[in-house]
C-alpha cells in the first residue's frame, strides 16, 4: 500500500478494528500493542501524529502461543469434534512423547522463553526459538501432514483440497484490485511463499512467548478481543484456542473462565458456541475449517457486525455492559471440556 493511500485511509478513520486470521495471532496482538504505545507517546507529546482508538481485535483460528497450543495437536487428531480418527495410535503416541519428553517440544519452548525474556533480539534467542519451533512443528504437529492424508485446514477434507476459492489469487492480482488497494505494479500476490516461511522459521518468531502477554495488556486497557475458531481446523484447532482463552491472565479472567458457554445464533440457527465476559469473547463455529469467512460467510458477517457495534457475539441482542453479569464461580469445573 503506497503512502498516499495509507494517508487517505488514516485521515478519515481515527479508530481501528482489526480482524486477523491464523498467524495473525502473532501480528494482531503485536501490532495493536505497538499502536497503543504510539498513542501514549502522542498523548505525552513525545510524538506528533493521529491517535487511533483501538476498539476491536478479532483473531480467527489464531496461532498465538506455541507452549499452550502444541499439546493439543495429538488430542485433536483423534478426539476432535467430528469423531474422525485421522491418525493411527502409534503416531498419536509419537506426537505426545515428542511434546513432553526431556528436550522435547515443551522443554525447548521453555528454553526459548527464558532466553527471550533475557534478550529478545540476541542470536542465542533466535537460535533457541528457531530450534524449538522446528522440533515442535516437525514432531508434534507434523505427523498429521505426513500420514493423515487430510487437509491441515479442515479435517473433513482431503489434503489436496484448498481452503479458499481458486479465483482468489487471480482476483488479488487483477489491475483493478491493485489500484483500489494502492499496490505497486512490481508486486505479485502469491497464496504462499517458501522463502517467507523460511525467513520466519529462522527468526524464531513462531515460538516467541510474547503474544499472549500482548493480549493481556490490551484486555486490561479496554480493547475488545475476539478469539473465533472453526471446529474442523487442525493447524489452528479450537482445543488449543480454548486453552489460550482460559490461560489469559487479566483483571476479569476469573469471571471469564467461570462463564458458561452459550449457543451462537445466526439467523435463529445454532451455529456454534460462545463464552464471553466483558471485552473477551471465545467462539467455536460449527461446520467450519481454518477460514470461517469461506465456510460460513453469513456467520462470519454476523460476528463481525456484532463485534464492531459493541454487541454480544452469541445473539447480537445485548450490549457489552449486559454481558458483564458476574457468573457463579463454583460453576467453573463444569464449563471446561471439548463437548
From TrEMBL:
InterPro entries listed in its UniProt record: AB_hydrolase_fold, Peptidase_S10
Listed GO biological process terms: proteolysis
Coiled coil: none
Keywords (A to Z) from UniProt: Carboxypeptidase, Glycoprotein, Hydrolase, Protease
One Pfam family hit: Peptidase_S10
GO molecular function, one term: serine-type carboxypeptidase activity
Family: Belongs to the peptidase S10 family.
Protein name: Carboxypeptidase
